[in-house]
Design a protein that fits this description.
The chain is α/β, with parallel strands linked by helices. It contains eight helices and nine strands. The protein binds guanosine-5'-diphosphate (GDP) and adenosine-5'-diphosphate. Adenosine-5'-diphosphate binds next to helix 2, helix 6 and helix 8. Guanosine-5'-diphosphate (GDP) binds next to strand 5, strand 6 and helix 5. Its EC number is 2.7.4.8. Keywords: ATP-binding, Cytoplasm, Kinase, Nucleotide-binding, Transferase.
Length: 217
């Protein structure tokens, strides 16, 4: 029997979180281009689209009523209020991907990370927190992105210290100083975690064989 027949592969849930502006969307975009088998979990949000954002690509843009209805009917795997707007990960596509052993990438905040880690899917989670090299650089990246008003930027900066305080809840931490180095760390983590996942069932078989050998002595 082949390994895939006896042990259907489970999809990994790769969670990326960071204070706003540290670079997690940039890393997520690069990772999706690097590995086209990864599925990006497109969140629903009540925040307004930024210039260039497309409904269904970066987010599903929803009214508060429509968002509330999704939560009520159990369609969200997790949801949270972030910077005064609601954000949530639709459950259906994640469960579909898990079933066929496809890995899913989430760009969600620490509250969402905590909810998925504590859910029935928790054992398939690999979580990564992205830190900026300095707070001055974080602010300059938020400004450089030039997509938010001064007020929005100030609000995000004010929240960044409490966001950062959750770093130790994550499996891995990447300091995004140089984007190429940060991206290399990210792909190394994914490759190592995939190896671990893929080897686990075969290892269990192997140890059963060792035990049979013990018993036969
Ligand atoms: N819990 C949760 N957080 C989300 C979700 N989608 C996005 N976020 C987080 O919401 C925050 C704001 O996202 P966004 O408005 O795109 O701003 P940006 O992070 O500055 O690009 C970020 O920390 C995202 O990771 C989601 O589905 N659930
Ligand atoms: N290592 C880096 N060095 C310099 N600029 C970066 C780096 N990583 C990301 N950026 C830039 O910083 C800004 C914020 O990045 P973004 O990915 O949108 O952050 P987040 O999704 O965490 O809010 C973007 O303009 C992005 O191009």
């Amino acid at each position: 029997m082949t390994m895939t027949q006896s042990h259907p592969r489970r999809g990994l849930l790769l969670i990326l979180s960071s204070p706003s502006g540290a670079g997690k969307s940039t890393l997520a975009r690069r990772l999706m281009a690097w590995d086209t088998t990864l599925r990006f979990s497109v969140s629903a949000t009540t925040r307004a689209p930024r210039p260039g954002e497309e409904d269904g690509r970066e987010y599903y843009f929803k009214t508060r009523e429509a968002f509330g209805a999704m939560v009520q009917s159990g369609d969200m795997l997790e949801h949270a209020e972030v910077f005064g707007n609601f954000y949530g990960s639709p459950r259906g596509p994640v469960e579909q991907a898990m079933k066929v052993g496809r890995d899913t990438l989430f760009d969600i905040d620490w509250q969402g990370g905590q909810q998925i880690r504590n859910s029935a899917l928790g054992r398939d989670v690999v979580s990564i927190f992205v830190l900026p090299p300095s707070i001055a650089e974080l602010e300059s990246r938020l400004r450089g992105r030039a997509q938010d008003s001064e007020e929005v930027i100030a609000g995000r900066m004010a929240k960044s210290q409490s966001e950062i305080s959750h770093w130790a809840e994550y499996d891995y931490v990447i300091v995004n100083r140089d984007i190429d180095n940060a991206f290399n760390e990210l792909t190394t983590i994914l490759e190592a975690e995939r190896l671990r996942r893929d080897r686990q069932p075969a290892l269990a078989d192997f140890v059963r064989g060792l035990n049979r050998e013990f018993e036969a002595r």
